[in-house]
Design brief:
Layout (H helix, E strand, L loop, with lengths): L2 E2 L20 E2 L10 E7 L17 H8 L2 E3 L2 E2 L4 H10 L32 H7 L3 E7 L25 E5 L11 E3 L2 E3 L11 H17 L7 E6 L11 H5 L8 H16 L23 H34 L6 E7 L16 H4 L6 H4 L17 H7 L12 H4 L3 E4 L9 E3 L3 E2 L3 H9 L6 E2 L2 E2 L23 E6 L2 E6 L2 E5 L23 E4 L16 H18 L23 E4 L18 E9 L5 E8 L2 E8 L2 E8 L3 E6 L6 E13 L2 E8 L2 E8 L14 E3 L20 E9 L7 H10 L2
Helix pairs in contact: 4-7, 6-10
Length: 763
């Protein structure tokens, strides 16, 4: 049989007839027999000290088992935030080289920050696919700018556009674990069953990963696969089945100060920390646990119980995937990488949150909002987050947390498991490495070179380096010697065992007492640490080594300039309206179909609007005609009990309804008009065939967002969580809905400061 490779000339002969022609077939790319599979598990907002094998007392037996049979890296570093870390992991380039200087949703008009990973920055999925691997992604993506997340957008930055052949998950930063906005391949799908029937996203994702593997093995037993498995856990909202949460009842009553000290000692005992590593002190602006009222202690302890249950639940379902690989005999020859994308998150602020959507709308997170709802934390009724005291503890022994360049933001747990390719087990590796080093290390392990041209596009150089030798040589000197960091104006530089770091305040984030949130970058205070001797950044040497600090800061500027980390910007207003493939208009015509992503949907907030649905129905028909948002904020127009209802849900706190008298059967136009009567208030008139049949006041409307990442605009049903508590989602309309027309007028409501704070508030 004659064959030829893709891109090469046809090697046969084409004559006038079959008799004087020679066939030749395009060859099939087959990796060498015995090539290992690759699995990346990317946890979300899991701090350095929150996995058992890194010193936690939270139960993570499956991750711990991988560590016992594999390796732990104690000096592994990320970018301190999700999108840039994931971009680095999948491309082997620094975050600004990929254009992902911050999260994809908050892109700006500069090359290092535009949120668009171009084809000259190839993904490991593209490389492995072209080398004969099956490629599949399950879970969180968050690598496409928000104007490319609707069903009319280009899919070139969706998973199937970046080398993955199968995908099931969610596109944004976070997902409601009980009611996510799901994507299958290149389209939105409804969740397979409801929270009331036991649905949880992590369980669904693990099941889908196993299904993808089985689908592959039902056809071929030899083809290796690359599985990118990114559960939404443990990002907010912290949600888990009650039985997982309750197993931690009372376990955190000692508070974050004692828990942190005990965890520090466990880390020393495990050898995760170098001997003599100091525990950095708790900043004075984090409450001392012993001084808190008992009521607060109980609420904060319960929030940590929820988080711990969430992580243990995640460990269980990720473990199902590894158990399946073991059952089919493939675990030992699978390169498994388990990591977190950044340090533990402070987004619960001082008191934690029962409904963190409130923060997106400029409503402070208060203790009063939590205390009446402590028993509901972790349930489908909540959208919670723990207070930043637990985030600080979760990053033991370090300072600070996610979104900042101190070790609490950028130092993360890393586990590598590959029994067939390593000759050591249960050991702790000390080499300094960054997330950009994982891709070249894995390619090196597979014997695959990064191509200089991929899909016809010349490639930017890989900026990570292979650390494969560390898999088998504990004391290898092979490690990263220099690494810069920049995120939202915070900066750091590591070079040959020294680190300089500067904190810069950000809107929507904790303001350190005594620091002006509008401070100029040149006035930021740089700290200096000799991390070879001071692993936890406990002893600031800036005052005693000014020349060394100057050298380090100069090196940061050189690295930042070389990798596109400029211009520096953080909370200052930037251009937030970016070019999109859709145009804003005054009249929208909708027909039943998939959800419309919020950025592309009609925006009726604080503006006169008229919404009319063309329907046929009988007295038995019911369901949602239009809905946007969900349990924690939004609006809906629906039929129930033979009446038309409009509801505006204000942050889950209050629901303002207007209801009609009983309706006649048949073909009718049903709708409502909204007339503003104040900045965040208005009047709703319900309309049947053009006649007003009911009127009601809406004294408080949602200020900015029903939900930053999900709960999209729906026609004929309500996806995700229900806007009203009188029905269960999705509450499909059972009559015939032909179309919905929405007319809007007036200037769209904009509050740039609130929008910027909202994006910083949930990342």
């Amino acid at each position: 049989m004659l064959t030829y490779n893709e891109g090469e000339p046809f090697s046969g002969t084409v004559g006038r007839t079959l008799e004087d022609s020679v066939q030749a077939y395009p060859d099939v790319v087959l990796p060498p027999k015995g090539t290992p599979n690759v699995v990346f598990v990317i946890l979300d907002d899991v701090g350095y000290a929150q996995i058992g094998c890194f010193g936690s007392d939270i139960e993570t037996p499956n991750f711990d088992r991988l560590a016992e049979e594999g390796l732990r890296y104690r000096s592994f570093h990320t970018t301190a935030m999700c999108s840039p870390t994931r971009a680095c992991l999948l491309t082997g380039r620094n975050q600004h080289t990929t254009g992902m200087g911050g999260i994809a949703d908050n892109a700006t008009g500069f090359p290092g920050f535009d949120g668009r990973i171009n084809k000259d920055t190839g993904f490991i999925s593209e490389v492995l696919r072209d080398n004969g691997f099956a490629t599949m992604a399950v879970g969180k993506w968050h690598l496409a700018p928000r104007e490319e997340t609707d069903l009319a957008s280009s899919r070139k930055r969706w998973p199937l556009g970046r080398g993955f052949e199968r995908y099931y998950g969610f596109m944004g930063a976070e997902a409601n674990q009980y009611a996510p906005d799901l994507v299958s391949d290149n389209h939105f799908v409804e969740q397979p069953y409801a929270a009331e029937d036991g649905y949880h996203l992590t369980e669904d994702l693990a099941g889908r990963a196993i299904e993808f593997i089985n689908d592959l093995r039902n056809v071929t037993v030899d083809k290796p696969f690359f599985l990118y498995f990114a559960p939404g856990a443990c990002h907010a909202p912290h949600q888990a089945p009650r039985e997982y949460i309750d197993r931690y009842a009372g376990k955190f009553d000692m508070g974050w100060d004692e828990w942190r000290a005990a965890t520090h000692q466990r880390q020393l005992d495990l050898g995760i920390l170098p001997p003599g590593t100091e525990l950095t002190p708790r900043p004075e602006w984090i409450q001392e646990w012993a001084t808190l009222p008992e009521e607060e202690k109980r609420a904060y302890a319960r929030m940590m119980e929820v988080y711990a249950g969430f992580l243990t639940h995640t460990d269980h379902h990720v473990g199902r995937v590894f158990d399946h690989l073991e059952t089919i005999g493939e675990l030992d020859n699978t390169i498994v990488v388990v990591m977190s994308d950044n340090g533990a998150s402070p987004e619960g602020d001082k008191h934690g949150a029962f409904n963190s959507v409130a923060w997106y709308n400029g409503v402070p997170l208060t203790l009063d909002a939590v205390l009446p709802n402590v028993d509901l934390l972790g349930s489908a009724e909540s959208h919670g987050h723990y207070p930043y005291g637990w985030a600080h503890a979760g990053n033991t022994p370090f300072q600070r947390w996610k979104r900042e360049c101190h070790e609490g933001g950028v130092a993360d747990p890393l586990i590598v498991h590959w029994p067939a390719g390593t000759n050591r087990t249960g050991e702790v590796r000390t080499q300094y490495l960054h997330v950009i080093d994982i891709m070249p290390t894995v390619l090196d392990a597979l014997g695959i070179e990064m191509p200089t041209v991929l899909e016809g596009v010349p490639q930017k150089p890989i900026e990570g380096k292979s650390l494969l030798e560390s898999f088998s040589v504990p004391e290898t000197s092979q490690q990263r010697t220099t690494q810069y960091y920049e995120l939202l104006g915070c900066r750091a530089i590591y070079h040959e065992s020294w680190k300089a770091v500067a904190y810069h305040p950000m809107r929507g984030q904790l303001y350190v007492p005594g620091i002006d949130p509008d401070i100029a970058f040149d006035d930021d205070r740089w700290e200096l640490y000799h991390v070879a001797e001071d692993f936890s950044e406990s002893n600031d040497l800036a005052a005693s080594h000014p020349q060394k600090l100057r050298e380090m800061v100069d090196r940061w500027w050189a690295e930042a300039g070389a990798h596109g980390a400029l211009p520096l910007h953080s909370s200052r207003p930037v251009q937030v309206e970016r070019p999109a493939h859709y145009a804003l208009r005054e009249r929208y015509v909708y027909r039943p179909g998939a959800p419309v992503a919020t950025p592309a949907a009609v925006d009726v907030r604080h503006r006169p609007s008229l919404t009319i649905a063309d329907v046929d129905y009988t007295a038995d028909d019911e369901g949602v005609l239009v809905a946007h948002g969900g349990r924690f904020g939004g609006y809906a127009l629906y039929m129930q009990d033979n009446s038309l209802h409009y509801v505006h849900n204000f942050l889950g706190k209050q629901r303002f309804r207007v209801s009609s008298p009983p309706l006649p059967e048949g073909h009718h136009t049903l709708g409502y008009s909204f007339t503003p009567t104040g900045q965040f208030a208005g009047t709703v008139d319900l309309l049947v065939d053009g006649e007003v049949v009911a009127t009601g006041e809406i004294p408080q409307t949602t200020i900015y967002s029903y939900h930053l990442f999900g709960e999209y605009f729906c026609i004929g049903y309500d996806d995700g969580t229900p806007v009203d508590n009188t029905y269960f989602a999705p509450f499909h309309f059972t009559g015939h809905l032909d179309s919905v027309v929405v007319d809007i007028s007036g200037t769209p409501f904009r509050d740039l400061a609130l929008e910027i704070e909202a994006f910083f508030a949930s990342q």
